[in-house]
Amino acid sequence: MRAVPLLMALFFMVPHFAAAPDINQQRAKELFLRLARIDSGKENEALICSLVERLLRDLGAEWVLNDEVSKKIGGTGGNIFAFFKGTAPAPPLLLSAHLDTVLSTENIQIVERDEIIATDGTTILGADDKAGVALILEVLQTIKEKSLPCPPLEVLFTIREEKGLLGAKVFDLSQIKARYGLVVDGGGTPGELIIASPTHRGFEVTFYGKSAHAGAEPERGINAIAMAAFAIAQVPWGRLDEETTANVGIISGGAAMNIVPDRCTVIGEVRSHQEEKVQQVLNRLRDACTASVAQFGGKMDWKEQVLFHGYRLTEEEPIVATAVAAVQELGLKPRLTKMGGGTDANVFAKGGIRCLVLPTGGRDHHSTKEHLILPEFYLNGRILLTIVMHWARGEKS
Predict the structure, then answer these.
(1) Is 100 one of the annotated active-site residues of the chain?
(2) Pairwise CA distance, residues 194 & 81, whole Å
(3) Catalytic: 114?
(4) Which of the residues 39, 67, 100, 154 is marked catalytic?
(5) Are residues 320 and 282 in the same domain?
(6) Do 286 and 317 belong together in one domain?
(7) What does residue 70 show for φ and ψ, rounded to 5 degrees?
(8) How far apart are CA 151 and CA 143, in angstroms?
(9) pLDDT digit string, tens, across residues 6-59
C-alpha cells in the first residue's frame, strides 16, 4: 500500500518539460517551395549550397563550412557543414539531408491542391530531399525564436547523394563529433522510424563471343547475347526473400540484326539486409555466367562494386530510444521499420555515426508523380523538433 505514495513522490522529483511546440507551418512550406524552384539535379548544386549556407549563418551557426568537394567529384558546390553550440549539456547530435535531386527540375511548374504539392508532370518535384532540408532549417528557426532547449547540433547538407552517396563518401567524417544523428530523407508516414538499410552491391559482366553473318554462316559465330540470356535465366530475380532483392537493370550488345553479336554487357544489383546473402547471390550469378561461357565457348569479364554497406540500429541505442519517446509524447505509435534503399546514413554508419532516418512526407520519389503531403510534412517537422528537444534534456540519451 505504500508503493503508490512512493511512486508519486518519485514522479514529482523528476523535472517536467512542456511538450514541443509546433513548427511554423506556413514558413516551412514557403521554404520548401523556395528550395524546390532551384534546380540541383544536374550536378549543379552551387546555387542551393549558397542559399542554405546563408540561411545557416542567419540562424546563428557558430561556423558554416563549404568543403567544395565538387573539385574532387565534378560539378559545382560542396557539402555544407555547420555547428550550433546549443543550450543544453547534452551529447552533440547530427542533423543531415541532401541538396541534390535525382533528375533536373529545370522549368519546374508547381501545382498545389488539397494540401498536396506536386508538379504538372513534366518534372520531378524534388521533395527528395528538399523537404528534408526545409524541415531541418525550420526546426533550427523554431528553436531559435522560441529559445527551446537544444543540444550541440552539427548540421550537414550533402551534395551528389543521388549519384551514389558521393558527397557523404568524400566528406571528412572526422570533423563530426556526434556519434548519433538524424537523416531526414525517408519514405513512410509520421511515426515511422527507419532503423535499417541493406548492403547494396552492383555487378557488371561482359560476355565475348564471335561475330559472323547471321544468315550466311551463323554457325561460325558465338552469340554473346544468347550467352548472357542463358546465364540470366539460371538465376532468380526480383524479391528473393523478405530482406533480399536482385535486379538486371541494363543489357546492351549487338551491332545489327544480321550480325551474330560478339559482345553483350549485363549490369545489375543485389541488395540484402544480410550482407552474406548479397555475396551468395552474386556467387550464384557468377557461376551461372561461367557455365554459360563454357557451354557457348566464349569468354567473360566480371566486375563487382560495393555501392554502400548496410546497417541496423537496435531499440536500445540512444537515438532510437529517444525518437520512440518523442513520437509517443506526440500521441503517435512509433513504428520501427527498415528500408530497401540507401541514404547518407549508410556512409555515416560506416564511419561510426549511428543515424536514424526520418520520413519527410514525400511520395513517389524519383518519378514525375512525386508529391509532398503537407499535413505529414508538418507533423514530421514537429517529430524532428521533439526528438531534438528530448535529446537536449538527456531523456533516453
Answers:
(1) yes
(2) 23
(3) no
(4) 100
(5) no
(6) no
(7) -60, -20
(8) 11
(9) 333 333 333 344 567 899 999 999 999 999 999 999 999 999 999 999 999 999
